[in-house]
Amino acid sequence: METRAKSGIEPASEVAEAAYPTLKESWGALGWFLLIMVLAVVSVFLVFNKFLHHTSIVVSALATALGELVTIGFLLWRYRRRLPRLRLLGRVPGSVYALLPAIVLAQVVLRSTVNYLHLPNWAAEAFLRLEGQPVLAFVLLVISAPVLEEVLFRGILLTGLLRNYRPWVAIGQSALLFGLFHLNPVQTVSAGLMGLLLGWLYYRTRSLLLTIALHALNNLLALQASTHTATSKLNGVEDLFTSSWYYVAAVLLSALVLAVILRRVHQRTVPDPAVVM
């Protein structure tokens, strides 16, 4: 049974039990992930060390994927009676998929401005080692991460939050958790901004396939760019431009392109009627 919120931040409870999760439970989901990740890392490390005598980036990669998968399975089991139905296809105008490359490029340029905050990148060395395993990097970053993270953050958490709270609260909370989930300062901000975009697109279309495709394309571009910059003197998107004015113009153009596309999506989609307005 659907629920409605009396305000932007308090879920309804007097009519029916709120969908999973409430705001408090969404924080709990992040806690469950961290606990499961610790157990996953220890388990994978022991297996590789004892039986294969091998400890490397492979261990971290497998532990991360395992932690995400187990977290999803645990939440689906524990809160199965309160979880809204997951939707893969949703309602997406065909032109939106054709515009995905433009959306990805525009948001990558916009998020590149985060580099000027000079935030620590605790995962830099891990990413460099991962790039030395190109097949593993592709499977983990372009296939596993987009599917598992979108199911967790948009399919499970955001879907329930949208049933209990106003869209701006639900999207903002899911984006915040998505950023913190990466456990790396520079990624926390950058992924949080991307989470706002993914969350809004999911809110308008209810399509996990769309957010998975966008997420995968974004990670593929990031992986290719990272591999290229490792063999060049480039440190980021801004270094592609010979003048700071060109970079500023690219940022403004990207903002305009993204705004036009999102306006088109807004005009051609209708949110799920179960969403609290």
The major sheet is characterized as:
none
Number of E strands:
0
Number of helices: 10
- Give the overall silhouette: globular
Distance between the termini: 17 Å
Category from helices, strands and their pairing: mainly alpha
Radius of gyration: 20 Å
- Mean pLDDT equals 86
Any low-confidence stretches, pLDDT <50, length ≥5? 1-7
Proportion of residues in helical segments:
55-70%
**Beta-strand percentage range:** under 5%
Order of helices and strands: HHHHHHHHHH
Question: Could you characterize what this model shows?
Answer:
With 277 residues, this protein is mainly α. It has helices at residues 23-52, 57-78, 94-98, 100-111, 124-131, 134-164, 167-181, 185-205, 208-229, 244-268.
Keywords:
277 residues; mainly alpha
